[in-house]
Design a protein that fits this description.
Blueprint: H1 14-47, H2 50-56, H3 61-87, E1 95-102, E2 105-106, E3 109-110, E4 118-123, E5 126-131, E6 134-140, E7 144-149, E8 153-158, E9 161-168, H4 176-191
Helix pairs in contact: 1-3
Amino acid sequence: MGYVSSRQPAELPAEERSRRIRRRTVQGAVVGGLAGVVAAPVGAVSLVPPELLASLGWLGLPVVVACGGLGTWLGVMAGRESGARDAGLEPGETVLSQYGVRPPVVDGRPTEPSDDRFALRVTDCGLQLWDGTRRLWSHPWSEVRLSTVKGSLLLVHHGDQEIAELLAVPEGAGWDALLLGAQRLRAQAHRR
């Protein structure tokens, strides 16, 4: 999927971009670690009989530590991805929503319904498609048009060219809100 952007965002200095990504990564690590540490005892209290829980005593500590480590690692990954995406925004640009999407085919192979590495970001300035931390394309609302096929496959057009076919993740999620929002944002872009 080699897409070309129709607009080049204002590039942040490398130091500022790294700082934003680091900040989001640390935030993700802290939140993920706390969630992991809290999830273990809460899960144990709700799933394990109280008599067994009392007899285990300190043996539950390694489980709490392992859950905290796993939560921290997952938080770091999510924070890094979020930071990279936010560092790609133009000054003053605001993310309005984000959709988990997947192309039907990547590199000649069908994608799995659970493949959630792609994100379609709707901003007040345009539409962006991301693959993890890498932006595949970004187009202003005045140049992009959206349509659906049977309500499940989203087609993204740039001028006369179809630039993306996307399925929602999870399957069955509708595109109605996105199509309505896109129509309004396109109208605003043409008035500017």
